[in-house]
Design a protein that fits this description.
The protein is of the alpha+beta class. It folds into 2 domains: 5-194, BirA Bifunctional Protein, domain 2 (2-Layer Sandwich); 203-244, SH3 type barrels (Roll). The protein is 25% helix and 32% strand. The chain has helices at 17-27, 77-91, 152-156, 162-181, 185-194, and strands spanning 8-11, 34-38, 44-45, 51-52, 60-66, 99-102, 106-109, 112-124, 127-137, 203-207, 210-219, 225-229, 234-237, 243-244. The strands form 3 sheets. The protein has a 7-stranded mixed β-sheet with strand order 1-2-5-9-8-7-6, sandwiched between helices. Strands 13-12-11-10-14 form a 5-stranded antiparallel β-sheet, with no helix packed on it. It has a two-stranded antiparallel sheet with strand order 3-4. α2 (77-91) packs across α4 and α2 (77-91) packs across α5. It starts with 7 loop residues before the first strand and ends with a strand.
């Protein structure tokens, strides 16, 4: 295991675990596998500049620092895929419902978002020098501003121990990262696609201000989705080009 207890930093409160991790990297690079966790994040970050809102003490916010030696511009999406699978592995310990991935890496249960992932990469020319992998899991929060959000408590019907969940998440992430480090990228990509919403069924998306029905055919190693419309049109999309409609 690379995610050792001695590399675990738990904070009572922080603006953002990803910000804290970035400051560590700037000051003096911490050991590979350093984990920062908190139950109180005051200025969490979401995808594409959005804000991740979390009620104090009710959710688990974390950031993992890794130094992936084989990631470049062409295959760096593997970090998103292994992280999504690690969260699926974690949540399946607590719910009996179907846990799915919404491209690129949101985790849904009963089509409700229960986890968000934000990965920030530091580059050295064409190689990934370091990665900050932020994971926010809705644990015991019961009220949400967004109608498509939920929590482990809402879905399981009972209070979940954030400390226990933290241990399970670190173990699950460690297992998936080791799988990647030992050459298991092809299997990770296969499992990711098997757990992805919209692969075998038609789903609705917004594309260029048009509502369309499409299904995902594949995801290439850089994270670009290859899709088919119901009318037979084939197209590619980056995450900024396509919005999933719940």
């Amino acid at each position: 295991m690379i995610f050792r207890d001695r590399a675990h930093i738990h904070l009572d409160s922080v603006d953002s675990t990803n910000n804290y991790a970035a400051n560590l990297l700037r000051l003096s690079p911490p050991p590979d596998g350093t984990v920062i966790t908190t139950l109180d994040q005051t200025s969490g970050k979401g995808q594409r500049g959005s804000v991740w809102l979390s009620s104090k003490g009710e959710n688990l916010l974390s950031s993992f620092i890794v130094y992936p030696k084989s990631c470049n511009h062409e295959n760096s999406f593997i970090l998103s895929q292994l992280t999504a699978l690690a969260v699926v592995d974690t949540i399946e310990n607590y719910v009996t419902r179907d846990v799915k991935i919404k491209w690129p890496n949101d985790i849904l249960v009963d089509r409700k978002k229960i986890c968000g992932i934000l990965i920030e990469l530091n580059w050295s020319v064409t190689k990934v020098q370091s990665a900050i992998i932020g994971i926010g899991i809705n644990v015991n929060q019961t009220q949400f501003e967004l109608p498509n959000a939920s929590s482990l408590k809402n879905l399981s019907g009972h209070v979940i121990s954030p400390t226990e969940l933290r241990t399970v998440l670190i173990h699950s992430f460690d297992k998936r990262y080791q799988q990647f480090a030992e050459g298991g990228s092809a299997e990770i990509r296969r499992e990711y696609l098997n757990n992805l919403i919209g692969v075998t069924e038609w789903e609705q998306y917004m594309r260029d201000e048009e509502r369309i029905n499409a299904r995902i055919l594949s995801i290439d190693p850089s994270g670009i989705a290859h899709l088919e419309r119901e009318n037979g049109e084939l197209f590619k999309a980056d995450v900024k080009d396509l919005t999933f409609i719940y």
